[in-house]
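Backbone geometry:
***
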Amino acid sequence: MESNAKDPLESVMFSYTINTNKLESENRLLRETITQLQNELEKLKMPALMVCDVSDLIEDKAIIKTPNGNKFYVNVINDCKNVKVGDTVLVEQKNLTVIRKINSNRKFHVEKFVIIEKPETQWKDLGGLDKQVQEIKEVVELPLTNPELFKRIGITPPKGILLYGPPGTGKTLLAKAVASATKSTFIEIVGSELVQKFIGEGAKLIKEIFQLAREKAPAIVFIDEIDALAAKRIELGTSGEREVQRTFMQLLAELDGFKSLDNVKIIGCTNRKDILDPALIRPGRFDRLIEVSLPNGEGLKKIFEIHTRTMSLDKAITFDKLVKKMENFSGAEVKAACTEAGYFAIREKREKITLKDMLDAIEKVKQKEEYDGDYIKMFG
């Protein structure tokens, strides 16, 4: 009887123990969840800290540069006295006190921001640019392929050249052709994109692009629309204008850092040579200026032959019948006309391009150019 009386009691005690352990486990889990949520809540309440660079140290204070380029003389908390010039730090937004130093790898993956290629454009692919080709061969190709010749003669070739002229005249093709002829890496930067996308970081990006060029040498750095970076200096009013100026000064510093016979060459390109800062085109920087103008009649003929050499043309098509219609065309416009003529033939399911196709295509390109010109006058 005694043993039977103990059994229910033991059962109750066992059940109570199991339930207690289960409740304690759930209670512990809830406490951990509450602690975690409280920590997250505290993080949400904390004000954001600004990332800045240390430009200088004066006694127990620091001069920091904010992301928009402004500089401030600020305090440094006692726990952060080991900061050095060039360090990246976190600062409190209200009074910009330096809170702590951070290890920040702020190097750009510059390959994402530039066009890098090994061009296949050949000199034979260029028409109507014989004079320009000769000059570029002398000042870019020859120093890269035969630097000893210049050392023997005792002269220094230009570090960089500037190609200027109307749009579509072949400036980029010239740069790609010399890169191909010298088996150089072609690194293309677009000045206007650099200014628009990288406010606060333009100078640093320029520095790293030129470092990339040294690593991939022999290389040609092609800066398209360089006037966006290197226009004549004006009063620096906005932070954007100051940033463009800093980027431009870094570009000048990089140009000054190259030797004339380095295996990196810089080619600038612009449609607006008249607005360039004189500091850019002085001797020692872009000291060879090459004009790439609209082609003359003979040049147009060579360009037309290049773009039609793989096309199926009717025998009635001769350049003499088209030359007057193409007057004042750029090389790009000649190419566009040839492409449009091909489309006219495709629409009518023909395999040969007729003289009418070419004439209609030329008129279409002319109309587009007139429309673009009127648009620029009205809104440009």
Notes: The first helix runs from residue 2 to 45. Residues 91 and 98 are 4 Å apart (CA to CA).
